[in-house]
Amino acid sequence: MKYASLLVLAFSILAACSDKPGENLPPSSGRTGDVFLIMDSAQWKGPLGAVMDSLFSAEMEGLPRKESIFHMRWIDPRKLNFVLKQRRNLIFAVTLDQKTSGANQIKRTFTPESLEKIKTEPNLFSQNSRNIYAKNQEVLFLFGKTEPELIQNLREHGGKLVEYFNLRERERQTTSLYKAGQLKGIPQILRKDFNSEMKVPFGYQLVMNEKDFLWVRQINPQDDKDIFIARKPYTSPEQFKRDSLIAFRDQICRKNIFEDPERLDTYLLTETSIPFNPVITREINFNKKFAVEMRGLWRTNNLTMGGPFISFAFVDEAQNMFYYIEGFTFSPGKDQREIIRELETILYTFKVSSELPPPAN
Q1: Segments making up each domain of the chain, as ranges
Q2: For the whole model, what pTM was predicted?
Q3: Is CATH 3.30.379 the right assignment for the domain spanning 4-177?
Q4: 285 forms bridges with which residues in the sheet?
Q5: Which pLDDT tens digit goes with each residue over 134-162?
Q6: Alpha-carbon distance 33 to 340, whole Å?
Q7: Hey, which bits of the chain come out as E strands?
Q8: Under CATH, which number does the domain 186-355 receive?
Q9: CA distance linking residue 62 with residue 272, whole number of Å
């Protein structure tokens, strides 16, 4: 998690920021993707609140309709009660130039040494801690000597803040997704046929296992969740380009992923004809490997179905194989942000051959 060290600066200046053992704490509450922002009302209604809202309520890319990355709720510090303190994601934000009662209440969280350090070191603007008021809770403190100073830091580093909370939600989902175990047989198939590993939760079913392709699926009353793995020899960096990824994806889907088993002429393809919702790619660190993430929409060739997908492309250097792994869903009329976040969590469990433990004797 290379970016995490860039996000939260390694210093302990907050009275509340020493992590507790947690035995006597209640469990954290709230839905996945919820973030509660504790900030003085004047700052929430002003430029600082606008910057915070633009970061965490930004639209998640690659969905068929508008859904924010997080559902942010503002809480007046004077109304922060016992129940609200137990939410899974809390952000406290304050600047020393704000003198209102709400701001002063947040400042009382800081030690005198902390306040002095904030005055003299403008590059220090964030501190995170876990399990302050509840178990499995993430708390982030944002601060600055002046409001313009904090706003500037947020504009420069705000993306890392969002990524950090995304990471925490993936960590939580990893725990909850596998409580019932994993799909039996998949670890053995992946080890034998791909020399790789991915944790597929119990409840999925194996649909297809062909040479260099595997598809698993979970069909529920309200949604259809799908994950597939495809690979081919790695030949050139050109394979990471957006158009090459789309072409490879469409080739895979046309050959292997049907809409209707009784109609082999129906297949999936990448939706590239909607200008306001294009396919987005970006270079990322995927489990310490260079990768390209791709998000966008898919549809069937006969226009009867469609939905969002997320994928990752990377190379297993030991095998010289180019991997494309994807999660997609069909859930018409439903919010799909958390489904995509769940599929992303599963995809992040993928390991290439060099990352596998040696086989048991």
Answers
A1: 4-177, 186-355
A2: 0.89
A3: yes
A4: 290
A5: 999 999 999 999 999 999 999 999 999 99
A6: 12
A7: 34-38, 71-75, 89-95, 126-130, 138-144, 205-210, 213-219, 224-233, 258-260, 263-271, 280-286, 289-300, 306-316, 321-330
A8: 3.40.1000.10
A9: 12
